[in-house]
Amino acid sequence: QVQLVESGGGLVQPGGSLILSCAASGFTFSTYSMSWYRQAPGKERELVARIFSAGSTTNYADSVKGRFTISRDNVKNTVSLQMNSLKAEDTAVYYCKAAHALGSGYWGQGTQVTVSS
After folding, report:
1. How, if at all, do strands 111-115 and 10-12 pair?
2. DSSP per residue over 60-111, as a string?
3. What pLDDT tens digit does each residue of the chain (117 aa) get?
């Protein structure tokens, strides 16, 4: 049974930091690229950051470059998103996604991040 379980969301003040984690099970984690997406109210879901299977290649949305860092642990089957210098516009539900080159993919249930004073 495939599971992606996100944690670490919450309420943070502008300029603050949060670390999101996603624990994966039920598939061969090390062969999947892992991504964080987010969806704000009334907006489409967008890619925030991606890390490829070996962990040496990452991509970021322009809006988060220099502030967010994605990392993975292929032993613990986890992927994390370190978010610094948070802004109100980072408020969204954040989703973890696993994607295989052959086409299979899985989504987590999402975790709410709210940036507000």
Report:
1. parallel
2. E-TTTTTTEEEEEETTTTEEEEEE-S--GGG-EEEEEEEE-TTS-EEE---E
3. 999 999 999 999 999 999 999 999 999 999 999 999 999 999 999 999 999 988 789 999 999 999 999 999 999 999 999 999 999 999 999 999 999 988 889 999 999 999 999
Q: Do residues 27 and 106 lie in contact, with contact meaning Cβ atoms separated by under 8 Å? A: yes
Q: Are 36 and 20 in contact (CB under 8 A)?
A: yes
Distance between CA atoms of residues 113 and 88, nearest Å? 10
Would residue 31 be called left, alpha or beta, if left means φ above 0 and alpha means ψ between -120 and 50 degrees?
Answer: alpha
Angle (CA) 68-74-77 rounded to 5° is 85
Sequence-distant (6+) residues with CB within 8 A of 19 are 8, 80, 81, 82, 83
CB 22 within 8 A of CB 80: yes
On whether the CB atoms of residues 113 and 12 are closer than 8 A, the answer is yes
The answer to whether 37 touches 94, Cβ cutoff 8 Å, is yes
